[in-house]
Amino acid sequence: MNGAMNTQMGEILIDTAVIAKYAGSAAIECFGVIGMASVSMKDGLAKLLRLENLDHGVNVTVDDNKITIDLHIIVSYGVSISAVADNLIGNVKYKVEESSGLEVVKVNVYVEGVRVID
Which CATH superfamily hosts domain 3-115? Predict the structure, then answer.
């Protein structure tokens, strides 16, 4: 389901893929996040996604114009995962709400891997 807003000029529909792109872009700006992850159901392995595929590590659900976001990330070795997750949730929530005008009610963070930065 897409997000929808009614204005004086008409109705605005926001596709979940657009929300996912915003969420993925906001996520990789956060300290400690190396990138978004795609998990292979067949192998159970997490793969680091390229910048053009950020939305593939994000699942967005819109229910009654309230957004729930699932982020699958890979973090940097040596960082506090809870601190990274707290920062990530706040940043993604703020940026998606500002860009869409819709409320983000939940951001779930799934840490799929840890990588050493070269």
Answer: Cation efflux protein, cytoplasmic domain (3.30.70.1350)
Q: Are strands 66-76 and 103-115 parallel, antiparallel or unpaired?
A: parallel
CA 18 distance to own-chain centroid? 11
Q: What is the pLDDT of residues 60-93, one digit of tens each?
A: 999 988 999 999 999 999 999 999 999 999 999 9
Residues 97, 104: Cα–Cα separation, whole Å: 6
| d(C-alpha 28, C-alpha 34), whole Å | 7
CA distances from 74 to 1, 37, 52, 67 (A): 28, 6, 16, 23
Sign of the CA dihedral with 78 first, then 83, 89, and 94 last:
negative
**Beta bridge mates, 10:** 7
Q: Alpha helices of the chain — where are they, by DSSP H?
A: 16-28, 81-100
Nearest 5°: CA angle at 51, between 47 and 56? 55
